[in-house]
Amino acid sequence: MLTPEQTEELRARLQADLSRLADHAHSALDFTMDRDRDRIGRDSMDEATEEETYSTQLRLHDRETFLLGKIREAMARLDAGEIDECEECSEPIGFKRLLARPVTTLCFECKTAREQVEADEGSE
Ligand SMILES: [Zn+2]
């Protein structure tokens, strides 16, 4: 069980992550709109480079959208008082681990066990 102070610290952390990501998602959208605008009256100079930049932006955007979802889920778990409960073994997740990675849903032991199974998925 987290103390009220720990809960507030995690909430602040999640809110900071959320607004940082929201800013990024916004820039990605601006980029898309700029790109469409730039197309008018422009020749095909350097199109390969441009395509590459664009698809990198899109990949980043997908990843950010995914992370935003995770952060919202974490906030819902925080509100429900379940954020420190491991979804696999129901043991408490350590506060230090939560603070380092507030979107986690697994305790260290379960995460380690799962990593061995999903060794090549690797994003966490
Ligand atoms: Zn566990």
Figure out the total of helices: 4
Query: Which residues form runs of ≥5 with pLDDT under 50?
Result: none
Say which CATH homologous superfamily is assigned: DksA, coiled-coil domain
CATH arch. level architecture: Up-down Bundle
Main pleated sheet: none
- What ions, cofactors and ligands are bound? zinc ion
CATH topology: Four Helix Bundle (Hemerythrin (Met), subunit A)
Classify the beta-strand content into a percent band. Answer: under 5%
Summarize model confidence as the mean pLDDT: 85
Report the span from N to C terminus.
24 Å
Count all strands and give the number. Answer: 0
SSE pattern: HHHH
Computed CA radius of gyration, to the nearest angstrom:
19 Å
Overall outline: elongated
The CATH class assignment is Mainly Alpha
- Please give the domain count: 1
Q: What percent of residues adopt helix (DSSP H or I)?
A: 55-70%
Structural class: mainly alpha
Give me the secondary-structure topology.
Blueprint: H1 4-39, H2 47-79, H3 95-100, H4 108-117
This protein binds zinc ion.
Descriptive overview:
The protein has one domain (4-117): DksA, coiled-coil domain (Four Helix Bundle (Hemerythrin (Met), subunit A)), CATH 1.20.120.910. With 124 residues, the chain is mainly α. The two termini are 24 Å apart. The model has no long low-confidence stretch (mean pLDDT 85). It has helices at residues 4-39, 47-79, 95-100, 108-117. It binds zinc ion (ZN). Zinc ion is lined by residues 86, 88-89, 91, 106-107, 109-110.
